[in-house]
Amino acid sequence: MVLFAFGQSNSANHGDSLHKPVKGVYNLNPFDGSCYQAQDPLLGATGEKGSVWMPLAEKLIATSTVEQILIVPFGVGGSAIKRWTADGDLVGRIKRSIDALEQQNIKATHIVWHQGETDARNGTTTIEYIKMFGEVISQLSPLGLDVPIYIATATLCGVEASNVDISIAQQKLPAAYPNVFSGANSDTLGNEMRFDNCHFNQQGLAKHADLWFKALTTKE
Predict the structure, then answer these.
(1) For labelling, which of 112, 118, 148, 170 has a CA lying 20 to 30 Å from the CA of 215?
(2) What is the residue range of 99's domain?
(3) Residue 131, C-beta contacts closer than 8 angstroms, at least 6 positions apart
(4) Domain total in the chain
(5) pTM of the predicted model, to two decimals?
(6) CATH code at position 186
(7) Are 39 and 20 in contact (CB under 8 A)?
(8) Cα(first)–Cα(last) distance of the chain, in Å?
(9) pLDDT digits 0-9 by tens, 133-165
(10) How many Cα atoms occupy the beta-carbon half-sphere of 66 within 13 Å?
């Protein structure tokens, strides 16, 4: 499995606990093009703490779902979806990550997107979010049109209530674009799972990983 993982902080290294290395789990750093044994914080994404991808990888290995996993993480904390579109300042991170895979002659098998909290706070509408995600998909086309894209439902961060416009958009994306599937619904994880009402504590990272495991192994 080659996991191409991006979005904002909860896709990056902003969890409260660091995960130990797991046999068979590797990290491709998009910024030097090299592969390493994976450990938190993962190389390529922002943040200096733990990620959901390490406990997810451990569960996938432990259940013999896969034998090896390569994680390609490049999420950026606080990033709005607009920043990942063709005119956004983060599109270069997508291109660099794709280039790193191509240089290693490796093909992505799963694309995972966990983003939305900033747009929920900024008041992005359902229609705007769906349209902009189509622009994000266009940046991913060099990976191949057959690579499944898994979309998290993610709007919760801080004390504000969930933004229904964004969660509706995220849940409509599988019907709006081909080869897009529902990913983890991290809005189901309350503040008891978050050390600062936004980012996940150790228990939250484990539960978040469980949600991604179910999504990746059922593809609904």
Answers:
(1) 118
(2) 2-218
(3) none
(4) 1
(5) 0.96
(6) 3.40.50.1110
(7) yes
(8) 18
(9) 999 999 999 998 799 999 999 999 986 656 799
(10) 21
Token output for 170: 């995220």
Closest by CA to 154, choosing from 141, 170, 140, is 170
* Residue % of the chain over a pLDDT of 70: 97
Instruction: Please tell me whether the peptide bond between 174 and the residue prior to it is cis, using omega within 30 degrees of 0.
Output: no
* Paired tokens of 116: 């939305």
Q: Tokens at residue 169, please?
A: 């958009």
Distance CA 52, CA 44 (A): 14
Q: What is the DSSP string of 94-154?
A: HHHHHHHHHHTT----EEEEE--HHHHHHT--HHHHHHHHHHHHHHTGGG-TTS-EEEEE-
The pLDDT score that the predictor gives to residue 199 is 97
What lies within 8 Å, CB to CB, of 114 at 6+ separation is: 5, 7, 8, 10, 11, 52, 75, 152, 154, 183, 184, 186
The DSSP annotation for 44-82 comes to: TSS-SSB-SHHHHHHHHHHTTS-S-EEEEE---TT--GG
What lies within 8 Å, CB to CB, of 168 at 6+ separation is 126
For residues 156 and 170, give the distance between their C-alpha atoms in angstroms, rounded to a whole number.
13
With both helix axes pointing from N to C terminus, report the angle between 91-103 and 126-139 in degrees, rounded to the nearest 10.
30
Sheet containing 25-28: give its strands across: 35-37, 25-28, 69-73, 2-7, 110-114, 149-153, 180-185
